[in-house]
Amino acid sequence: MLFFTQCFGAVLDLIHLRFQHYKAKRVFSAAGQLVCVVNPTHSLKYAPTRCAAAQASTEQGILPPCHHHEAVHDPQLVPCTCPLFSCPWEGHLEVVVSHLRQTHRINILQGAEIVFLATDMHLPAPMDWIIMHSCLGHQFLLVLRKQEKYEGHPQFFATMMLIGTPTQANNFTYRLELNRNQRRLKWEATPRSILECVDSVISDGDCLVLNTSLAQLFSDNGSLAIGIAITTSKVHSSEAEI
Amino acid sequence: MLFFTQCFGAVLDLIHLRFQHYKAKRVFSAAGQLVCVVNPTHSLKYAPTRCAAAQASTEQGILPPCHHHEAVHDPQLVPCTCPLFSCPWEGHLEVVVSHLRQTHRINILQGAEIVFLATDMHLPAPMDWIIMHSCLGHQFLLVLRKQEKYEGHPQFFATMMLIGTPTQANNFTYRLELNRNQRRLKWEATPRSILECVDSVISDGDCLVLNTSLAQLFSDNGSLAIGIAITTSKVHSSEAEI
After folding, report:
1. Which of A113, A156, B104, B160 is an S-S bond match for B174, by CB 3.0 to 4.6 Å?
2. All domains of chain A in start order, with CATH
3. A187, B184: Cβ pair inside 8 Å?
4. Chain B residues lying within 8 Å of A186, measured CB to CB
């Protein structure tokens, strides 16, 4: 009898270890879709001045818009686009991805459709969940931000940016989908270029916006699953119908 | 020459009159879909006490939940569910529709898919746009509300309620869709029963929520077109995938 009890205990331990192993892995596949578990990062900066300059330049059609350091003379250089830190790095658009991976340790995923599983949604604002997504020959940055636009009322903002120019961004459509508790919320839009600055996109509210109660309804055990799909742009056929 | 000029003027007048006629009609058909032009109504009441009692009863599974007047002894009576006014009317669920039509002059539309065109979105909160929708043998109440949850920051809340019991409501799914400016926002959910009180649904934020900037992006000339579709419920097939 003791033998069977010990065997049962060992099996339970193995199951527990296996579960921990999967939990620890940041990327795994479930139900045929690539699921990426993304842990939150406390934002160390909110530097509106950097973004204000970037936005002003973008509106005037000047590229690269985020470039406003007088000391640098190469107009092809762009500043670090990581929304987490005030980073002094500047470089060409082609090397932004490797900078984000190496310096800011942002993961990159492959695949046209993935599930972004943001953990610990209850943590206090400001908080960011960030991942890069490689798809259709381009790299995209998905940012989920918890922020208090109105004091005491945190909201969640989710957007997708192309690590490329606004012209390139116009060739794509991204979709974010939440689906749980007999509710479904879908947001489809053209990704904005990373040169336009993620902070201004979020402060304009031109993204998927969730209040806390809705985020809770879509969450499971403190984690929010966002289905992501990227396609090449086509005219929204039903736009004319409405 | 003068004759032709006068003829041309007369034709222009006729076109203008025809346009005015269509504009004045509250319901017309465009692009194969029934479009309902809904003008805003300034809300005369916000009575949370009535709704708090209703919600408490619903949570306990007692029906009809909004009934809490001691003077009335018939448990089948429900109070007026019009979200616009504090109305003393009470009656059976079956006659709520005729009360809303006759007393509160809320229009009713037929059709599985309609477009709700809310005008004058710029008017200050609190404001309501309301229509009834007859479909699949039942009547639904669509409420779009502009309200300031956070002072100085008006938001738009849209929800659909079944004029029936919560059990009946579980048999349906409604979809609200906004589509404009290369952005698309879809909200799908089970309609709530009108017995649950629209005010509490909106204050919980368990509905389609739009901030002002997003509402402007989806608006055309001050009007917001919301595509509405109602279907009988089925399990959300992709829910298991995420």
Report:
1. B160
2. 30-42+75-232 (2.60.210.10)
3. yes
4. 184-186
